[in-house]
Structure formats: structure tokens, C-alpha cells
Specification:
With 418 residues, the chain is an alpha/beta fold. 48% of the residues lie in helices and 16% in strands. The chain has two domains: 205 residues, 3-Layer(aba) Sandwich (Rossmann fold); 181 residues, Rossmann fold. The protein contains 18 helices and 14 strands. The chain has a seven-stranded parallel sheet, with helices on both faces. Strands 10-11-9-8-12-13-14 form a seven-stranded parallel sheet. 39% of the residues are buried.
Length: 418
């Protein structure tokens, strides 16, 4: 009994030491790593910004990075539209989120989340004084959540997703389970997440779905059209590869060079758009390749492949495709399949998709196809190109899946009852 009482206190100590060590590593890394430098510098400015910002009617939304922001964005914009009397504060942990969205027009203030210490949490909450708070998907910061609960400020997790291998569900996970108890309510993506939480005694949970469906649907309804791409794809069969890495590109270009299939236009959107990477991709093919930044209405006509060498276009570009390939599946995991599926096209991706429920569901509906090597890619490409009925049905299955899952943001707002 004595050990059981001491253990949570001991874990608080270990947790705080871990945060201190992390902050120290970031400080050292900031001398030679751009992202670490941005994080360290930005976090220093947080309290300066907050001291100059005052609001008596504030909602705070916290996202780890850009992907979580896109997940939370539909909810943010619904709140802005339906409850204009509220001010909105948006925070990020990662530079990739903050630097891209520091001027986001729907937020009244955007800042870096300070490191999760007791002192920082007290100071942050005392300055913000939010009426309520939303954390998106994976954010579980002990001291910040503890301070919100202590001040009786409602805090909600949205689009949460849980797996058996997470610390909350381990034998030694008591400290981490207590973090979950600090949430007023947890809105999760699926029934398996709900069951895992119920099994450890977390009752304030319900399935509302994934707000990313709302986001990709909104993008599709207001997508950008690109005149150069219109010209390039005119009446052609179009294949697009989005957020690709080298292993993806090696397979795709082996198909392009050796399949013998003619009259296909290829749009390649690499994850890394530095000049040396674009040059490497250009050297993979003997076909006519042009960079988007160098394209015009004359030279685009004879091109077989266009490489998109800027950011922000991909989610709208999928609308031009007959088939989409989603990169990342030979690395840490696939990128966003829903951005393509919303347009009613079949999607192909690599083997590392086990942590992505939407990819598994697309496969089960015969709308998505996982490949593990060039032979698998050649086989499914041949099938989709030569069997039009199969391709069209796969695309319809993808579109239906997205449409069936729209509405998570509205469900959350109704449950919170602002």
C-alpha cells in the first residue's frame, strides 16, 4: 500500500525529469537544427505574446503539428462561424504546425505550447483563462491537463484514437491512465478505442468519428483549379502520386519506364521539394518531365510527367486523377489517403498502414490497395488501367466511405453544447 501511494508521486518526478531533459536536448540541438531552433525560440515568445493578449471569452485548441491541425480545423471553423462571440487561441508543439499556420485567419492568437512543467502550466492557464479547451488526437500533457482540471476548466480530446500498445493499457500504466482522467470528455474515432478506455475505467468517452472526413470533404467542395494542370491532363488518363519518398518513387518510375502502357499523364508530388531531390527524381525517367515551377502553356503540352515542386496543391490535385498513389508506406507510415478517396478514385499505398484505420477500411471495401514491391504495384496498376469497371467501382467505394463518415465536428459541438 505504501508503494502504491508513493508510485504516482515517483512517476510525477520521473515525468518532470524527462521534460527537463527533453528541453535541454532541444536547447542544445537549436544550435545546429532548424526545427529545434524554431521550437526553442518560439516557445520563449509564448508568454510575451500571451501577456499582450486579453480575452474574457476564449476557447483554446491545441494541436501537436500540422496533421492534427488539419484534423481540428473543421471544428475550429464551425466554432468561428456558429459562435462568433468567442475568441480562439490555437497552440502547436511542433514547428511544422506553427510555422505553417502562425497567421491562420480563424485564430485570434497562435502560439507554441510551452514545455509541460508545473510552473509553465500554471502561468499559461492564468494568462489564457480559457472557458473550455480542445486537445486534438494524441496530446496528453500531464501538467497542462492537471492545471486545467484544478481550475475546473472543461477540456475535451477530439478525434482520439487508442491502441493496445499505448502506455495507458500497460500493467505499469497507472500514472498515464490518470492523465486520461483529467479530460472532461474524450471523443474518439472508433469503437475499439472506446472499448479500450472503458476496460480501464474511463467512462466519459463516446465515438464521434474522425474530423478529417469533414476536412477533406470541405476541401473537395472548394478545391483550387490549376490552369496548367488542366492543360497538362486534358482528356488524358491521369495517375497522381502524392507525398512520395524515394522507395515510392523508385517503384513508380520503374513502372513508368517499363510498363509499355501509353497515353498516361503522371503527376508526382514529392514530400521533399528541395532542388537536389527534384533533380534526382527527374533522372529516374527518359520521358519528358517538367517541373511545375518551370511549366507554361507551351511546354506542358508535350510533357509526360509533371513534378510539383511547391507545397499546398496536393489536396486539390487529386481531383484530376483516375488513380492515386499515397506515399510513405515504405517508411514510417502512409500519408493521408482520405484526401484522394474523397474524389472517388482508387488509392494505392505501401505496406506500412497498420496504424491507419482508414487505409484498412479502404482495403476492406476494395477501394484501397496495398503493395509491398514493384510486382504488386505493376499488377494493381495493370488491373485498374485495363478494367474500367473495376476502377470505377473502386472509386465509388472510396467516395461512399468518405461520405458515410462526415459529421464528426457537428457531433462534438452538439455534445459540448457551447
Amino acid at each position: 500500500m505504501l508503494f502504491a501511494a508513493f508510485f504516482p508521486l515517483n512517476m510525477k518526478w520521473f515525468y518532470s525529469i524527462g521534460i527537463f531533459l527533453y528541453a535541454s536536448v532541444i536547447k542544445v540541438a537549436s544550435f545546429f537544427n532548424t526545427k529545434a531552433k524554431l521550437r526553442a525560440k518560439g516557445a520563449k515568445q509564448t508568454f510575451v505574446k500571451l501577456n499582450q493578449f486579453k480575452s474574457d471569452n476564449l476557447i483554446w485548441i491545441h494541436c501537436a503539428s500540422l496533421g492534427e491541425f488539419e484534423q481540428g480545423r473543421p471544428l475550429i471553423e464551425k466554432i468561428k462561424l456558429q459562435y462568433p462571440d468567442y475568441k480562439l487561441a490555437l497552440s502547436f508543439f511542433s514547428p511544422s504546425g506553427y510555422e505553417m499556420q502562425k497567421n491562420y485567419e480563424s485564430a485570434d492568437i497562435v502560439f507554441y505550447l510551452p514545455n509541460d512543467t508545473h510552473k509553465n502550466a500554471e502561468k499559461l492557464i492564468s494568462l489564457l483563462k480559457p472557458k473550455l479547451v480542445f486537445f486534438v488526437k494524441y496530446e496528453f500533457w500531464f501538467w497542462h491537463l492537471n492545471e486545467l482540471k484544478k481550475n475546473k476548466i472543461p477540456v475535451y480530446l477530439i478525434s482520439g484514437i487508442f491502441r493496445k500498445d499505448q502506455l495507458f493499457f500497460k500493467v505499469y500504466g497507472n500514472f498515464f491512465r490518470k492523465i486520461l482522467e483529467d479530460f472532461t470528455y474524450l471523443f474518439v474515432q472508433n469503437e475499439s478505442s472506446e472499448k479500450l478506455l472503458l476496460d480501464i475505467g474511463i467512462k466519459n468517452v463516446t465515438v464521434t468519428g474522425d474530423t478529417r472526413f469533414d476536412r477533406v470533404f470541405e476541401i473537395a467542395q472548394s478545391r483550387t483549379q490549376f490552369e496548367i494542370i488542366d492543360k497538362f491532363t486534358d482528356k488524358s488518363f491521369v495517375f497522381i502520386a502524392g507525398s512520395t519518398w524515394k522507395p515510392d518513387e523508385d517503384i513508380i518510375f520503374r513502372f513508368i519506364e517499363s510498363s509499355g502502357i501509353q497515353n498516361i499523364k503522371y503527376i508526382i508530388v514529392p514530400h521533399e521539394i528541395k532542388d537536389e531531390n527534384i533533380k534526382r527524381i527527374q533522372n529516374l525517367s527518359q520521358k519528358t518531365i517538367i517541373r511545375y515551377s518551370e511549366s507554361n502553356f507551351e511546354n506542358i503540352v508535350d510533357a509526360d510527367i509533371i513534378i510539383i515542386d511547391n507545397i499546398g496543391m496536393l489536396s486539390s490535385l487529386y481531383a484530376y486523377a483516375d488513380i492515386a498513389y499515397i506515399g510513405g508506406g515504405f517508411g514510417t507510415g502512409i500519408h493521408n489517403t482520405l484526401e484522394a478517396a474523397v474524389y472517388g478514385i482508387p488509392v494505392i499505398f505501401g505496406p506500412k498502414y497498420s496504424k491507419f484505420d482508414e487505409a484498412k477500411e479502404l482495403i476492406s471495401r476494395k477501394a484501397g490497395f496495398s503493395i509491398s514491391d514493384k510486382d504488386g504495384f505493376f499488377k494493381i496498376m495493370q488491373k485498374l488501367i485495363t478494367d474500367n469497371n473495376f476502377k470505377l467501382q473502386s472509386g465509388k467505394n472510396a467516395e461512399m466511405y468518405v461520405k458515410e463518415n462526415i459529421g464528426a465536428s457537428e457531433k462534438i459541438l452538439q455534445a459540448v453544447n457551447l
